[in-house]
Amino acid sequence: MAAPLPLVGWLRPLPWLAVVALLYALVQLILVLPHTRDGLGWDETVYVSQSDPRTPAAYFSAPRSRGISFLVAPILAVSPSVTLLRTVLALASAMALYGAFRVWTPLLGRRTTALAALLFAGLWATMLNGSQVMPNLWEALAVVAAVGWFLRAPAEPSARWWLAGTIGLAMLLRFPDGCWLALPLLATAICVRTYRTAAPAVIGGVASGGAQWAMEAYMRFGGIGERLHLSSATEGGMGAAHSFASGVARALHSLNGPLLCRPCDVPLHAPALALWWLALPLLTAAALASTARRRHRLALSALPVTCSASLALPYLFLIDYSAPRFFLPAYALLAPPIATLIAGTERGSNQRTASLARLPRRSATATAIGLLFLAHLASQVGVLTQTTAQAAALSGRYQQAAGILRQFGVRPPCLVSGPHSQPVGYDLGCASGDLQGNNHSLTPNELRQRAAREPTAVLTTSISTPPPAPARNWLPHPLRNTGGWIAYVSLPR
Fold first, then answer.
1. Which of 242, 295, 481, 484 is deepest in the core (most CB within 10 A)?
2. Global pTM value
3. Domain check: are 270 and 339 in the same one?
4. How many domains are there within the chain?
């Protein structure tokens, strides 16, 4: 009779982090892409147009950074298909999730690292943004990897190169966020002797990643100071004049949608689904208290929490609007400490040395944590379903407007101006420009000159809103199924 096969090879631990990344990709492909594969959102069209060789580039305002446009450039060079673009991004974001949190495995262990990735990937904003041409998710993955490499830098010389690279990537994707990340890292490197060897890597990452932003500041805006001034004006005036309490209220009210809360005067949607957000400060404090008892592990919680606060405070304190995606980097950095807290609680419930009297209570604790987490994931999927429908409806409105304008004879080369000109212009293959507002890039005289030689459309949001002076004598066309938009069209003779 043959000897039984050894069980060691069959009982290898599952690659939990890879499982989380795979589930993250599947959720995007199954729940998100069917709704969003046909169109792009407003900000997405601005970023995509910078790299799409088939479409004129939309006005790129001072606060924006070009990292995400560079990221999607190879895809756009192959095909203009939105479905292909979103599919590649969904798969790439899942691989990036794996790579970013894999950095933490030597620090936390396999299961705790996988749990941290699941905590972050389970948020509806994370699931939605994975396939979107937006920088915030990629910024979040860059910063969580950077902090992990920083913590590993004293013991691993090669980690310093990865640290510089991930900070550079964060700077390229979102220059302001990269700066807010670098501040606590550099302060830690200067003040804590153990991490002083990481200081050159932090400085090098900031310099290499911020070089493109700085060069563009001089080439387009007249210098770094002027670009920062224009960025503040575009954001509505950045400064400490905004109340921290009102910033928290705005973040809370936008937590379950809308995708952009500007102005943020909407009521909180589904307040019960915001309990996890209200619990974050308590969980964070508990995580810090738990690791404080083991001083050699305190940095594993204290540094990511500090960096998370640094990244969140500008959005809570310096601007007067909010969006859930703004806080993705902060959430990503809170995931490892909170996962460590949860894993420690679960291990405590399964201590082999525990007395028989305590076993039922500890098992009940672990079961309760598991059920609460499953309920949280289910609620996030519910919010995801609603927000993907909102995103699809908005991009569908842009496509509807573009289709009607195309029937009126607005075809490339052409120009679209007014509210929503960037996404509608992109869908048409036209240039876009605004006479006023944050995307002011066109003068009335330039509008007249362009209208004399190419098809031009000026959009307004209702018939009661008059068009700008150059378009007053143009024929108005209602754009059906767009909520009352009107297009004033001029075709060259």
1. 242
2. 0.93
3. yes
4. 2
In a domain, 283, yes or no: yes
- What is the extent of the structural domain holding 258? 235-348
Say yes or no: 318 and 418 in one domain: no
Q: 3-class DSSP state for residue 123? A: coil
Q: Among the three residues 333, 348, 363, which one is the final residue of a domain in this structure?
A: 348
CB atoms within 10 A of CB 335: 25
**Runs of H (alpha helix) within 153-271:** 157-173, 175-191, 199-220, 224-234, 244-253
Instruction: Please tell me whether residues 263 and 344 are part of one structural domain.
Output: yes
Pairing verdict, β 431-433 and 475-478: unpaired
Q: Is residue 446 part of a domain?
A: yes
- The tokens for 284 are 């964070």
Handedness of CA 417, 419, 425, 428 (dihedral sign): negative
Asked if residue 38 is part of any domain, the answer here is: no
Which helix or strand (DSSP H or E) is residue 490 part of? strand 486-490
Tokens 């009335």 belong to residue: 444
**Residue 141 CA to its chain's centroid (Å):** 9
SS3 53: coil
- Dihedral sign, CA of 308, 313, 314, 315? positive
Alpha carbon distance 42, 423 (integer Å): 5
361 pLDDT above the threshold of 70: no
- Mapped onto helix, strand or coil, the DSSP state of residue 223 is coil
| Same domain, residue pair 342 and 407 | no
Alpha-carbon distance of 117 to 342, in angstroms, equals 13
Same domain, 408 and 486: yes
pLDDT tens digits along 362-383 = 667 778 888 888 999 999 999 9
Q: What is the pLDDT of residue 266?
A: 82
Residue 337's closest CA among 371, 298, 370? Answer: 298
- Give the pLDDT confidence of 191-242 residue by residue, as tens digits: 999 999 999 999 999 999 999 999 999 999 999 999 999 999 988 777 665 6
Which is nearest to 435 in space by CA: 477, 408, 463, 466?
466
Determine, yes or no, domain membership for 415.
Answer: yes
**Cis peptide preceding 53, ω within 30 of 0:** no
- For residue range 12-25, list pLDDT tens digits in order: 678 999 999 999 99
Rounded mean pLDDT of 90-110? Answer: 98
pLDDT value, residue 287: 95
Residue pair 340/108 in contact by the 8 Å Cβ criterion:
yes
What's the angle, vertex CA 477, arms to CA 476 and CA 482, rounded to 5? 130
Query: CA-to-CA distance for 387 and 258, rounded, in angstroms?
Result: 7
Q: Does 471 lie in the same domain as 406?
A: yes
Contacts of 477 (CB under 8 A, 6+ apart): 404, 405, 408, 486, 487, 488, 489
pLDDT of 145:
99
